[in-house]
């Protein structure tokens, strides 16, 4: 089968690899209809991780069940499914508690497994024609038949639940104000989620005009950090009190207004702009053991936080991988009901063979390349 393979920094190709097959009775094989490039793939693409050359990328996958193992009872050939990027077993202590991002069975060492991702287990990615899905009964979410809502449903494997998770971690309640740092796919999904959850106002911070325009299209207030003092604007807009809730959707690759990387910037701006006793949800990645990290400290995930400010304001903060399976069923139903429109962020639909161009343009943050979908069957 054809698959996108990592050769080294900034070098990916589409090539022939052995077909995905059933390896355990509880596996299914899914024929991929849509698989997305994610901001998380760029950490590997840029050579910032220890990912091995030869790895097939792709953790945002959906498709149609092609084959099921003898132990699979809830799925049948022909079912249209979304696959959460986290692979869970369904029976460990964390999966039972709905913390599927921290499955103890699939990846004991790191706690948490994913398709095609550095240090998250041996699972091949889905930027390919076929994908092996472990513990398929537990992991696959069945979607309505047909092809309707394909570009909305494809956001269910990662960015929509991840954005929702960021808002959930912040503790947002209806009527509250929310600020989201980052208007990449994850930040835009957090902003859309906050609106769906009844926010009174949602501010979205970035500097990319195309992404800020999408934030506006979701009913949010855009703030360009390269043009204004973000903390001052947020403080003024909330009568000096600060925003009720904040979401971090940038990660350690945050840039300052002059374009230099400053990994602690957005968290410190959240401490400063969220109100005393407010809540913060962090879904941007602060990657430990990053060989490409500019400093030894960052390699170990250590960054210079204004912890005293966070403490004195009595804020709360939640972090980590999204537990996709905790949310994807309800988010699917919001799409079916016409209430949620996560597919609005899609900028490009490319055949799988064009994936290297998609990586190059999305990585360079070329204006207009917001979310790239790959279609192996096209
Ligand atoms: P992305 O790189 O497309 O988006 C990041 C955005 O942040 C860009 O638009 C960039 O312009 C903006 N930005 C940079 N500096 C900024 C600043 N100082 N203030 C405001 N915005 C700034 O990536 P994405 O796909 O949206 O992912 C965002 C983060 O979420 C990444 O770190 C990714 O690895 C992570 N992620 C986490 C999970 C999870 O489960 N926790 C899942 C998916 C992705
Ligand atoms: Zn992703």
UniProtKB/TrEMBL annotation:
Query: What InterPro entries is this protein classified in?
Result: ADH-like_C, ADH-like_N, ADH_Zn_CS, GroES-like_sf, NAD(P)-bd_dom_sf
> The organism sits in which domain of life?
Bacteria
Q: Which cofactor does it need?
A: Zn(2+)
Domain annotation Alcohol dehydrogenase-like N-terminal: ranges: 25-135
- Which SUPFAM superfamilies does its entry note? GroES-like, NAD(P)-binding Rossmann-fold domains
Whether Ribonucleoprotein counts among this entry's keywords is no
> What keywords would UniProt list here?
Metal-binding, NAD, Oxidoreductase, Zinc
Segments forming domain Alcohol dehydrogenase-like C-terminal = 185-289
Pfam families, per database record: ADH_N, ADH_zinc_N
Family to which the UniProt record says this protein belongs: Belongs to the zinc-containing alcohol dehydrogenase family.
Q: What name has this protein been given in UniProt? A: Glutathione-independent formaldehyde dehydrogenase
Q: Give the organism the record lists.
A: Aquipuribacter hungaricus
The taxonomic lineage of its organism, from the top, reads:
Bacteria, Bacillati, Actinomycetota, Actinomycetes, Micrococcales
